[in-house]
Amino acid sequence: SRALLHQIGVPVPLVPVTAYSLHIAGQGGPLKQAILVEGAPSCLITPYQDSSPPSVRVTGIRDLDGAGGVAHAHRVQELAERAARFVGPVEAARCHAWAGVMGVSPDDFPIVGPTRKYPN
Question: What distance in Å separates the CA atoms of residue 8 and residue 3, rounded to the nearest whole number?
Answer without folding.
Answer: 9
